[in-house]
Structures are given as structure tokens and as C-alpha cells.
Please model this.
Amino acid sequence: MQTDGAMAAASDSEAGTQWAALAGVTTALAMFGAAQGLSYPLFTLLMQRQGLSPALIGLSAAMMPVGLLLSASFVPAAVRLVGARNLAVGCSLIGALCFLGIGYLQNWIAWYALRFLVGVVINPLYVLGEVWALSLAAPSRRGRVMGVFNALMGAGYAAGPLILIILGASGWPPFIAAIAGFCLCALILRAVSSQLAGFEDDGQASGGIAGFARLAPALLLAVLVSAAVQQSTYSLIPVFGTGYGLPEAKLAALVTALSAGNILLQIPLGLMAERFGGRAMIVFCALATGACALSLPLLITTPLVWPVLVVMGAVGYGVYTMALVELGSRFKGSLLVAGNAAFALMWGAGGIVGPPGAGALMQAVGPLGLPAVIVGLDALLVAFALYRSASRRSS
Model:
């Protein structure tokens, strides 16, 4: 029989193992995020050098999100077929091979197919990274864990362009950096694989993405709204600033302020989720995002716009972080995988409908179109979330 001291030591060891696995997963996904963050400006610069039009450059950039969107529904089946660990490690290595091919071919037509394939293989990394983080985190600490996870992912993406500044966009160095990021992701995931939860073997029927949508439509709407708001804001805030006469140098700083909030404030939001719950925090973040958007026309030419943008970047993405926390608290096993795959699908859909819709309204009514879209989407989310909560209480 174990003594109390031995049982405590075993418990401490188990907790330490969970934290080690979490650290490994988070580090691996940050490496992958840096590689992906590097790729966007790299391709733009290379295609500009080849004299390609902005339309062709934009179409090439869309190949990765299209790959993400089309592959989302296949992730749960792939997990059941080959196992989560093998799928993640294999996709990391295929991603490295894609960037090897991209660097070797230097052919913009071939890049379309390869960037689409990159989108296909990174989707399981998104899904499984979040599933592992949710599964490994203790329920009482899930909010802060997901806050740290998303903050470090954001930092990884932000590090990508910095790496490109250091290495330059000529020759093999930037491609080697991207390949190294994917290879390090594979190595780290393989090293911690013995501690990753075997949720793919739970034998539970999930019903796939369609089945999950019937169980948690409010969570999927939250992801759709977060994606549409975030990507519309990042894409069009410089256009919004131009409409109020801001100089070009300040336009880039507007996006930087949004990114800073996204990175710095996810952990405090996660701690708040542990105290108040994911559902309540989804509503809070949506209301705060709408309030920030309403204040933009009044503050855009004043110094107060900077703290507003920092908060707006945090709570806008915070809707997604809070949805993840709520997902982890309600679902386990195969349903958790299906839920994360559904999240990936809705994130892609939000990115497709958000920026074009906001851009069209801005063209029709001027700069006020951007805050109008943001407020409208967040109001829709709050109304539906409150309706679902009332329906659950009445039933």
C-alpha cells in the first residue's frame, strides 16, 4: 500500500508530466506558427519580384485558407484512421517537404498547389494542438492554459516576419527557417507523444462536424464571428484610418496595436474565464469588442485610440479563446476532436465572408462601414448566446 507521502509524490509527478507535455505541445505549435507567419510576407515579396499582379498574389495567398477550409471535415476521420500523434507528426513533416518543394521550384504556378497542400496539412496541427492543450489542462486551470497557448501562438506568428527581416527574402535562408520550424514541431511532438492523451481511442461516436453543430451552435457562431471580426479589422483598419486622414506610418501601427493586445491580454482573459465561465466570457468579450468598435470613429485621431485598439485586439480574439475554454469544459474524446475541426471550418468561413462584407459596406457608406459590421456581428452573437442560455434553462 502506498503511503500518503508516496501518493502525493506520485500526484506531483503526474502533474509535472502534464505540464511538461503542455509545454512541449505549446512550443511545437509556436514553432509551426513562426514558420507560417514567415510564409505570408515571403510569398508576397517573391511574387512581387516576379512582376505578378496584386490579384494573382491575393489568389495565391487564398490557397492556404482554402486548404484549411476543405480539409476540416476530414480531420476526425484521419485521427481515427492513423491516430492523433502519427497524424500531427506526419503533417509537420509533409509541411516541411512542401516548403522544400516551394524553395526548389521557384515557380509561382506550382506554388498555388503547394500552398493549398500546406493549408491541408497544417489544419490537423491547429485542431490537435488545441485538443491536446484542452485535454492536458486541469479543469480549474483551463482558462489560463488556453490563454498562454493562444498568446504564445500569436507570438509565434509575430516572430515570423521578424525572422524574415533578419534573414532577408533572397535565396534559401527563409525557406530553411520555415522547414526547420516544421521539423522542430514534428520532433517535439514525437518527444512528448507518450504523454499526449489517447482520446482517439475512446470509441465514442461523434457524429462528425454536422453532429457537433447540433450540440453547440452558439460556440460555432462565436468562432465565426471572432474570425470575421478579427480578419476584417486586421485587413481594413488601415483603410479605416486612411478615411480619417491618418499618415501612412501610423496605419501600420494600428495593426501592431491590435496584435499587441492579442498577445498580451489572452492570459488575463483566461483567468477571468476560470472565475466566470466560458459562456459568460464569450458574451463579455463580444460586448467589449462592440463597444471598442463604436468608439473608433470618435477616437481614431486621438491618442486614446491606442489603448482601445489593444483592448479590441484582445477581446476580439478573446471570443475564440473563450469558445475553446467552453468547448474543453463540455466535451471530451472524439466529440472534442469533432468540435475543434468544426471550429477550424467556421474560422475559415468567417475569414471568407468577413473582410469582403466589411469592405463592400465601407465602399458603400465610407469608413463607418467597418465598425458597423463589427457591432452587428457581435450583437448577433450576444443575442443568440443569450437565447441559447435561456432555452437550456427552460428545458
Confidence is low (pLDDT under 50) at residues 1-17. The chain has two domains: 4-200, 208-394. The domain at 208-394 is CATH 1.20.1250.20 (Growth Hormone; Chain: A;). The chain has 15 helices and no strands.
